[in-house]
Amino acid sequence: MLDKNTNTATISSDPKTWLTQHGITEVECLVPDMNGVLRGKALPTAKFLKALEDRALYLPSSAFLVSIDGRYSGSIDEGFAYSDPDMRMVPDVSTLCLAPGAAAGKAYVFADAFHMDDRPWMASPRHVLRAVLDLYRQRGWRAVVAPELEFYLTAPNPDPDKPLTAPVGANGRAEGVQHPYDMAALEEFEPVIRRVYDYAAAAGLPLDTLIHESGTAQLEINLLHGDALPLADKVLLFKRLTRQAAQQCGMHATFMAKPIAAQAGSSMHLHMSVVDEAGNALFASADDTDTEMFGHFIGGLQKYVPEIMPLFAPNVNSFRRIRPNHSAPANIEWSHDNRSCGLRVPAGGRAARRVENRLPGADSNPYLAIAGSLLAGYLGVEQKLERSAEASGNAYKIRSTLPKTMEEALDRFEACDPVRKLLGEDFFQTYLRVKSVELDLFQSVVTSWERDHLLLKV
Fold it and tell me: Which family does the record assign (predicted)?
């Protein structure tokens, strides 16, 4: 039976009835910013329904210029920055869902940003992904994606100068060693996991399998494959609900790419395939061999992913994860079922033929990571780019073409004209502004490592 939370056609045609049936008194209108932080407004249900009719729901345009520390990054146009004009928020009523981690009677809905003349606000990550999906539609294609999201449960960490520690599990002890894929270790966090699954079911999130990953108290959740835009929405909802569930159990949940120095990083692997309008797989032929299109798609990922790494590694911390032999890829090689490669082709028949981009971190904005991956593959098909020879064995030994630092990544991103042309100047200028300001803020901080090793020695 189809859960009424996922019956988007019914919700879209009659949101008032859905809100009444579920006793909703408040709706949070969510606008994802450059970092995937959910900004927006909370409205009484009557005000929300009125906004659907008169389209009089507004948010300052500076919402897309907020850096991760909450400061405004400004604009290259000083007049625009100081006038800070409103943008119109248009709720996507198909995304209405219960807000199970909050007080009773609350719902979430994602909203798109538009200019007052109804032009899309193209700096918005939702519009960026939608623009890439439109390129696919123009070719008669549909992208199918499946995110895998890793995260850590930790003890509360009120002092950011102190390292994270593992939380106390059901047996009264904190994990001190790794327990990859250990079912008994997974049971230690059953109260949190059960709450996460309950919240996800109420919100209509398509969760699949859950495992204990290689880090201490590190878990991985798989989302069922589907259309890209709804799944990006659901990744952000999953993060929010998981943080709430963990906090209610006396823990924290973190999606930092590398939260603990001596432990594995956390990724957001993206599985991608492409089908035609009839749903036929385009990456494998009738005889189960790879199609020419599949080869070009991988070739596009190999060429362009290194040039647009800020979409997959959006923070200084992200590059601490992308190092050889640290449970993360450090290259853009491809191979069948080889996890030392940045691009992995999992085992499976024709219908399951796909490529897994293992570069994105759990800290990446899902709209932008998915848009960047699909656009790189699209350009590979358009330009008929050939993939390299398949890697074998330990691909960590192969020289990497990926940027090593955020500075290098931003320089290459800024110069990537084919992607810049398709994603547009509005997005590029805004994203570069935010990320450059964040980098400058980080570089102004003196770290504990510097105090430890330089204070009394240099």
Answer: Belongs to the glutamine synthetase family.
37 and 137 assigned to the same domain = no
Q: Are 49 and 139 found together in one domain?
A: no
| Domain-embedded: residue 111 | yes
Contact 354, 273 (CB under 8 A): yes
CATH at residue 115? 3.10.20.70
* Residue 155: inside a domain: yes
Residues 313 and 219 in one domain: yes
Residue 439 domain-assigned (yes or no) = no
Question: Which helix (H) or strand (E) covers residue 276, if one does?
Answer: strand 268-276
DSSP state of 387: P
CA 274/CA 282 separation, integer angstroms: 6
For residues 323 and 229, what is the distance between their CA atoms, to the nearest angstrom? Answer: 30
State which residues form the domain around 113.
8-121
Q: Which pLDDT score, from 0 to 100, does residue 422 have? A: 96
Average pLDDT, the chain: 93
In sequence order, what are the residues at sequence separation of 6 or more whose Cβ sits closer than 8 angstroms to the Cβ of residue 233?
A: 95, 110
Neighbours of 351 (CB within 10 A): 13
305: its two tokens: 């992913």
Specify whether 260 is located in the same domain as 337: yes
Among candidate residues 329, 330, 357, the one with its CA nearest the CA of residue 343 = 357
Distance between CA 229 and CA 213 in Å, rounded?
27
Question: Rounded to 5, what percent of the chain is helix, strand, coil?
Answer: 40, 20, 40
Distance CA 91, CA 30 (A): 8
pLDDT, one tens digit per residue, over 254-309 is 999 999 998 999 999 999 999 999 999 999 998 889 999 999 999 999 999 999 99
Residue type, 126: R
d(CA 154, CA 246) in angstroms, rounded, equals 9
Which of the listed residues 89, 121, 153 is the one where a domain comes to its end? 121
For 43-68, what is each residue's pLDDT tens digit? 999 999 999 999 999 999 999 999 99
My answer on whether 385 and 251 are in the same domain is yes
Quick check: is 451 in a domain?
Answer: no
pTM of the model: 0.95
- Measured between alpha carbons, how far is 415 from 420 in angstroms, rounded to an integer? 8
Kind and range of the H or E element at 344?
A: strand 343-345
